[in-house]
Amino acid sequence: MQRIVLWMVGALVMVGLAVVGGPVLNAGFQPGAAASWVARSGTWTVADGLLVGESGRALFSVELGSVRRVEAVIDHVQGEWATVIGKHESDEAWVEARVSATGITLVAWSGGREKAWTQAVAVAFPATVIVAFAGERARVVVNGETVLQASDGVFADLGGDVGLGAQGQAGFSLFHASSLSGPVLITSLGQSPGALMAKVLADRIGIESTYETMAKPEMVEGNGTLILVIGASSKGLGAAGISVEDESARGAALVAKAQVLGWGIVVMHIEGEPRRGTLTDELIDEFTPVAGYVVVKADGNADGLFTSLCAASGIPLRTIVATAQGADVLADLFGLWK
Amino acid sequence: MILAVVLLLGLTSVAQSPITHDVRPGYGVTSIGWLSDYHSPLRGTPGDTRVYVLDSGVSGGTALVLGGTHGNEIAGVVAAVMLVERAIPTEGRLIVIPHANNAVHGYPDSRCPSCPSWVELNGPDGASRLFRYSPRLTNPAHQSPDSSSYVHPSGLAFAGEEARNLNRVYPGVADGTLTERIAYAITRLVIEESVDYVFDLHEAGVTSRLAHTLVCHPRALQVGAIAVMDLELEGLVMKLEPSREEFRGLSHRELGDLTEALVFLIETPNPGQESGLDAPDVVADPVHPLEERVGVHLAFVLEVLNIGRSLGHPPVSVNGVPNHQQLVQLGVSTWLNW
């Protein structure tokens, strides 16, 4: 067990595996590799893939827009609550969600005043908690259910860092923060119709998007988000006159350009089990680890391939049962939720 | 001598007349014609078939539904008959050909010797109705013997017997084989009636990769993608496949290329088309009963029309048709005329 106790503001916690890709931060917790967490108070340790905090806060400094979401998997809470910090400009200006077994409290501190919104709800751990902000609105999602929504100017005003906290002891197994924005470039990796489905989903929620089955790196310009929809169709590849190797090379070039420009990258596999197969799996293996976020239809992950790939890279994996539910996921990711 | 010629012509005429079927038009039917109305050389041949027009009297688009392209794909036939008997258009027109290839009857099905020649559906008060269950291809007695290969006008070569497959010979040939003339007449109908939507209702073996598939011409793919996603939310799971360039001769490719219509082909799983089954029950199969398959066909037809309307395509609205759940709960017979 690697145990690092930090008392000073600004000290570094060695909690490993943090990947910052443009407007996306993914932090897994493996001992040994350095990352830029800052313990503001309390005791923070890393063991067995968990970050365990006691009576304090740990922050991660990352430049995200005001429209943002923070997602964490809270493994356990021993004590009063675990905290997911959505915005932290200073010790006098922050917003956080406190999660206990019996409820959620969203707390905002700004201008010397505290505001709080509380919702009693039974929370089962491990719990996936999302704290999201869009303009003056904020919401907290727990295990896939929106349990609290609030509207206040403070949510729009604040920005700053993101982080985690504990009152008592809390363990965390995943941390993700993002501020994805349009325009979105949607392309297929494998030339199946899944990318068109993603385009339909994007249109449904009003994201400005471009759908191009054979998108090239030249189309990655300015700011934006790249959505790679994986699904290989031998007929589709044949019709396009390309091989899966060609798709791999095109995808790699797109990813490289997106990373240079700081785009977020979302990988989707939304056609389910019928679209799995050797060719598709080659693309899944190659491109899932470069994603900032992964969306998969449940029967397309029946063998746990996405689960294992995402766990190995500390990438959040969102599972949908029906393809149409992907619209809600995109709305969540892009701050377009109702 | 003259009498003999007249008798011979008469006998020939009788022998070659199109087979009629037990179709009981409902209140939505506004006129009944023949396919030969669109290509007169078809008149008096076994390939002629009834064309049912259901005109709402309200301006809008036109949808064409083809059942019975293949004689053994019974769910498509019954779905089309059900439209003739129950549908009440409220906007635009519906044109239905329940037996698109009416020349498939009257010879044994070598692919499925144990399949029935008739399907009997039981109604109220001991009544029953019979539907022909015929082979897939045009009766060889109606067409020149098969060559070793059939070469589509595009140059694509098929096995010789495919010359008798209606869904390999589109857009048809005006003075070609009987099967080509049928395809030509359907193509003429689509053009002359300014058809906006074409639905070709098919079935496949239960383990075939085609089963549970919605094939869409590329211009129809967006509408198809939405339909697949929306109906999945209701438990109707279908794969989405685009009509590839190499699918020459097939309805969805050729009619989509030649006309402005959005063309779809729907495939449901029919145990009668599964090789290796000794006694397939094409009506009461416990996994894929007829009512379930008919329900899928009708659900996709109506959903596509709804989506087309919402996306600004010419509107066709239809009342009176049972939804999938009603069909599964109450059976096919409930929704036919007795």
Number of DSSP-assigned strands of chain B? 14
Look at the structure and give the CATH class of the largest domain in chain A: Mainly Beta
SS elements, strand count of chain A: 21
Series of secondary-structure elements of chain B, N-terminal to C-terminal: HEEEHEEEEEEHEEHEHEHEH
Strand order, main sheet of chain B: write it out: 1-2-5-3-10-13-11-12
Shape of chain A: globular
Please give the alpha-carbon distance between the first and last residues of chain A: 43 Å
Radius of gyration of chain B: 19 Å
Question: Do you know the CATH topology of chain B?
Answer: Aminopeptidase
Largest pleated sheet of chain B: 8 strands, mixed
End-to-end Cα distance of chain B, whole Å, is 47 Å
Q: What's the CATH H-level superfamily name of the largest domain in chain A?
A: Exo-inulinase, domain 1
| Rounded average pLDDT of chain B | 93
Helix count from the secondary structure assignment of chain B: 7
CATH topology of the largest domain in chain A: Jelly Rolls
Strand content of chain A: 35-45%
